[in-house]
Amino acid sequence: MDMVKFFHMNGGIGEASYSSNSGLQRMGIMKTKGVIEQAISDLCHNNVNFPKTLVMADLGCSSGPNTLLVGSMVINAVAKTSLEMGYKSPELQINLNDLPTNDFNTVFIALQELQLQGNTTDGKMRDVQYHQPVCYFSGVPGSFFGRLFPMKSLNFVHSSYSLQWLSQLPDLEEINKGNIYLSSTTPESVSRAYFEQFQKDFLGFLRCRSEEVMAGGRMVLTLAGRTTDDPRGEESYYLWRPFAMALKDMVLEGLVEEEKFDSFNLPQYTASPTEIMNLVKMEGSFTIDHLEIFDVNWEAWKRKKNANDTLESTETGDGVGQGVAKAIRAGIEPLVANHFGEAILDDVFMRYGQILTGRKSKKDNQAIVSITVSLTRKM
Ligand SMILES: C[S@@+](CC[C@H](N)C(=O)[O-])C[C@H]1O[C@@H](n2cnc3c(N)ncnc32)[C@H](O)[C@@H]1O
Which GO BP terms sit in this record (predicted)? Predict the structure, then answer.
């Protein structure tokens, strides 16, 4: 499976789009606002010469309101820091990266809206006391596991909920019977292969960024992760076992071939904080300034953006189970369609939502574990 050729979130702004179903990630980004602001403030304060131009990249930007949210946060953080330091805001170059099949058209149309309305963040209109930076936006298609930018050209890199996706499915020596991701019944060799693929990808990512980010430059990376050391623990499968159950039911009803089910595995890895810290150390080009773990409760699936970019809950009639199923569908539909064909999509995601709804009582497990790490490029 070639991720670069066809992996993407559902495009457009319709009911099934990532744009309409990215409230969980949006809530996660909001929770990292303080970390992003601190990184920008440090970046400006630690520069011998206050930067005249600040170049940033959002890697795995997707399409929809979240794409603009990060840019808005950085714009406001730069404006605020400049004011505090008594300097004119630097000009900002904002590079929006994703895989080539990402819906960049929707991003560019939304950018126009942002430029017309003024940048906003976390629901507040631009604070008029700040001298707002002039911004230039570019779309950069390509995989962040390879080089995307010239040497030492970036001051700041952001990435949210993208780095848990692998560059490819690991080569598996054994069948991950009955599962679509790591679980308590996954063979040890499969679990090892997943970690090895993540290690290779994450180290490659850091190596590429170490060439592109200038000395003293900053990165804030947020990934879906886990708190525990065991990659086959409950945190890894509470979201995916119900999807495997939905597929298994369809196998039993003769709607999905067993061999197809057995050969379907998700190309993602939810790392632990220890794994991330060890890999950053192993690669050696960045220091960790801050690392935090937080939960994004499933309830956040229904957080939407209104015209003023404030977050609000919308009542669509869906319960949290179907809502989360829609959010997951917006992210993995192309993977499922590519493997099983489009005919099963409505059925499998409806069943998935029903199973998630049935598990509603397990409150502890109704959250996406997220890890944010803030890094500085060594001098
Ligand atoms: C869940 S979305 C996150 C989007 C956005 N950053 C957010 O927080 O809402 C993950 C995005 O990462 C992108 N992605 C995955 N692997 C990638 C890679 N190797 N290079 C660039 N983008 C990638 C996907 O195409 C997708 O748009």
Answer: methylation
User: For the purposes of burial, counting CB atoms within 10 Å of the CB of 259, is it exposed (0-12), middle (13-18) or buried (19 or more)?
Assistant: exposed
Ligand 1 pocket by C-beta < 6 Å: which residues? 7-9, 22, 25, 29, 60-62, 66, 97-99, 102, 143-145, 160-162, 165, 167, 331
pLDDT of residue 357: 85
CB 373 within 8 A of CB 290: yes
| Ligand 1 atom with minimal separation from the 143 CA | 20
Q: How far apart are CA 175 and CA 158, in angstroms?
A: 36
> Which segment of 15-19, 97-101, 285-289 scores lowest on mean pLDDT?
15-19
Q: Measured between alpha carbons, how far is 314 from 291 in angstroms, rounded to an integer?
A: 32
The chain-wide mean pLDDT, for the chain, equals 87
What is the model's pLDDT at position 307? 44
Which residues fall within 8 angstroms of residue 10, CB to CB, at 6 or more apart? 16, 17, 18, 21, 329, 330, 331, 333, 334
197 in Cβ contact with 160 (< 8 Å):
no
Q: Write out pLDDT tens, residues 105-131.
A: 988 888 876 665 454 444 344 444 556
- Nearest CA residue ID for atom 5, ligand 1: 61
CATH number of 3-377: 3.40.50.150
